Amino acid sequence: MMKKAISFALCLLMAGTVLTACSNPDEFSDSENLSLKYTRSDKTDDTFNYADGADTAPSSYDTYSAKITDFELRLFRNRHKSGSYVFCPANAVLNLETVANGASGDTQEEITNALCSGVTLENMNQCASYFASRIQSVASSDKSPESSQSSENDTEKNGAKNFVKLSNSVISNDNADIMTGFLQTTKDYYDTDVLRFDYASDDALKKLDKKYADFTNSGSVFKNLDAKQSVISLSAADICDRWLNPYAQTDLEKGKFKSADGEKEVTYMTSNETYMKSNKATAVMKYFSQTPLKMMIVMPNEGVSLDDYATDFTSLEYTTLLDSVDVTKTAKAKIPEFSVDGSKSAEDVTQIVEKSGINSSFTADRSSYKNLSRSDDIAFSAMYDIAPSLSINAGGIGGMQSNGDKAELEKRIQKLADTDVTVEFNRPFMFVILDNESDIPLYMGTYTG
């Protein structure tokens, strides 16, 4: 009997050793990443997840798109600073929508009204799911229900990388009791990871570094976290694609760009592009090959500074440019190759969001999150973002990855069309990378040289 007991104990010990060896100490466990235990619903008439087969937008999508675009432009105006930068307002919106499902009472009403007044919470979730899953899934060939909304299985078509990656997390400090309904909703509509760990834990921060390594070039997301904070959000994004209409080597030429620090030499890319204009600016639209995105490049008129234009860039100006498109008319566009470095760590964007209409939701004694946790101490403390990197060149668009900077063609088979208008982007401009169906901005930024 004693031998059997000893043998049984040894077997249990060995099993425990094997299980410990199989778990990865550098990754979050089930008790830390609470979303791992949940599976996204495959009912596309409810989730409207494009990767799962939904191909029709939810009701109120047009209203949702207009409202969300207006909020993102507010974020841009409040985010704007002199110099070159890029940020992803769509991620801020997705995180606010996620947190709205954990909010209650006046707090939930404040968030939903600021984002898309007149659209129900359920419809907002469906529209957000459709938008985010579509822009990430179109470039991927893996459309199975098991595939992640974040398109981790990016495909390479014709040897080129094509993807949009959005990574969002809601992070709770230590042992807060997170509601199961909130966890299921975030999985169904947002594919947001809900993490729970001690903010003072160095090991947990190292795991977070590994989780976001593709967006930080393996840097540190946080040097430390404020232990007084309760719940925070974290977002990151990356894009890689080629141009729908590729450049030839003969389309490239050196020229001068009037930067804030004087003239500098740049490489200009010449092509025929969709032409747009308003009373304040001239713009062109370029399209990407595999991702369902397009890029609007906007240059204020002579005498209008980029700072003045950007801080007054409203929905009216945005729609004026979009509505000015004449499909029968193109411009010869001379666009400089350029790049903007992102942040290698998380930046606090809470004040930008507060200035954009979310006033009391970050104040513990003025907010309520009863749909997030049973704890009375729970509060949404801050929003953090890892600003993306961006490179625009003859090879296409890239961020942390790229398809290289070489034109696809040695020489143009069909010459560029003669046009009445030539637009040379030879002074500071702004840009918007937007969804080609809803016109919701994904990235926004400025380039000053």
Quick structural overview:
This protein is an alpha+beta fold and 449 residues long. The protein has twelve helices and 19 strands.
Notes on the structure:
Residues 73-448 form the Serpin domain. There is one protein chain. The longest helix has 21 residues, at 2-22. The chain is globular, with a radius of gyration of 24 Å. Mean pLDDT is 89; it is low at 8-21 and 141-158. It contains twelve helices and 19 strands. The N and C termini lie far apart (81 Å). Helices cover 29% and strands 26% of the residues. It is of the alpha+beta class. Strands 1, 7, 8, 9, 10, 11, 17, 18 and 19 form a nine-stranded mixed sheet that branches. It has helices at residues 2-22, 44-47, 61-79, 89-100, 105-116, 121-137, 180-190, 202-211, 213-216, 306-310, 315-323, 350-355; strands at residues 85-87, 156-157, 160-161, 163-173, 193-197, 231-240, 252-259, 262-277, 281-287, 293-300, 330-336, 338-340, 347-348, 380-386, 390-393, 396-398, 422-424, 429-435, 441-447.
